[in-house]
Design brief:
Length: 227
């Protein structure tokens, strides 16, 4: 027996059921979409927040490092300025010490006995270095007479030491600004030995400078070896 056709009310009821089902499916689908969208939004938001935080952290780290570098540069500049001032002051003290020494040698020639011994010794030393038969002695004009006597005594001493004879001539060519002493020039005029007081002091300054620095300022901690 074939099924009975539905009347209008039954058709309407079935349609309402279908509409209700479709609406329910739509609401559930909407909820699924919303939940998924919320999840994706939360993930994207967390990603953006993390990226922004990383960018902020990187910018902060860059600024921190820049500040550290600037601080180190400023500290280094301050240290260098302090070190330069200290070195400048030390150099001034050394030059003051050498200035006192230079002033002292200006009066050395006033003591004729000591000055004669110095001239004789300086000439003997020069004769022994040159080992020539004829030498020219260059002195200050005011030292000519004393140098003549000292040269003769030096020639005798040289003969006793070396067994050789030497003759000399004087030339008063040394500047009046010179503290004294003598320059010896070989007969060929190719070799000059500077035994002036000024040159002796200069050589002494160069030789004694490291020792003077240690005595005045102590060892230099930046140097492994001290000379």
């Amino acid at each position: 027996m074939p099924p009975r056709p539905m009347n209008d009310e039954e058709v309407l009821s079935e349609m309402n059921k279908m509409v209700a089902f479709i609406k329910q499916e739509a609401r559930e689908k909407e909820r699924e979409i919303k939940v998924k969208a919320d999840e994706e939004f939360a993930i994207e938001k967390a990603k953006l927040v993390k990226q922004e935080q990383q960018a902020i952290d990187a910018q902060f780290e860059k600024k921190r490092k820049g500040a550290e570098v600037a601080q180190k540069i400023a500290q280094s500049n301050l240290t260098n300025k302090s070190r330069l001032k200290l070195l400048q002051r030390r150099e001034e003290q050394l030059q003051e010490l050498f200035s006192i020494a230079r002033t002292s040698i200006l009066t050395f020639a006033e003591d004729e006995g000591r000055y004669f011994q110095f001239l004789e010794g300086a000439v003997v030393q020069g004769f022994l270095q040159l080992m020539e038969t004829r030498v020219t002695l260059h002195v200050r004009e005011q030292d000519a007479d004393l140098m003549q006597k000292a040269g003769e005594a030096a020639a005798d001493s040289y003969a006793e030491i070396s067994g050789r004879e030497v003759t000399f001539e004087l030339e008063t060519t040394l500047s009046q600004d010179c503290a004294g002493g003598v320059k010896l020039v070989s007969g060929s005029r190719r070799i000059t030995i500077d035994n002036t007081l000024d040159e002796r002091l200069r050589l002494l300054e160069d030789k004694m400078l490291p020792e003077i620095r240690r005595d005045l300022f102590g060892p230099n901690e930046n140097r492994k070896f001290y000379t």
